[in-house]
Amino acid sequence: MTNLKQLHDRDFNLWIEKTKEAIQNRDFANMDWDNLLDEIDDMGKSEKRSLDSYMQRLIEHILKLRYWDEEVERCRKSWQQEVVNFRNRINRILKKNPSLKNYLKSEYSDIYQDAISTMRFDFEIPEDDIVEVEQIMKDGYFG
Fold this sequence. Notes:
Layout: H1 4-10, H2 12-24, H3 33-67, H4 69-96, H5 100-119, H6 133-136
Protein name: DUF29 domain-containing protein
Pfam families: DUF29
InterPro entries: DUF29
C-alpha cells in the first residue's frame, strides 16, 4: 500500500481515494491519522468560514438598502436579490449543519460590526445600528 502520509503532500485527491479505500477495508493500521484529523478539522472550519462570509454579505446588502440613499433606487432590485441569495445560502448551510446555529448566534455581533466597518466607506451608518440575527434572517426582510 502507498504510504498515505507521503501521498497527502504529493497528490491530495489520490490521498482521499486511498484513505477512503483504507477505511472501507478497515485497514486502520496503515491510516494517516494525523492528516485525516487535520482534514476533518478543516472541513468544519470551512463551513464556518462560508457561514461568516454569507452572513457578512447579507448584512452589507441590508445596510445598503437601509442607508445608501444615493444608490438605492437604481440598485434596489439587485440588492434585494442578493439578500435573498445570501439568506438562502445561509439557510442551506444551517439545514445541513444545525449545530452551526449556535455558532452563528455567538459570532453574529462581530460579523455585523465587520460589515458596518466595511460599508462605512460608502455611506453613513448610525453608531447604534443593529439588526438582530432573527430579524435579518426573516424572509421578506430587506431593512
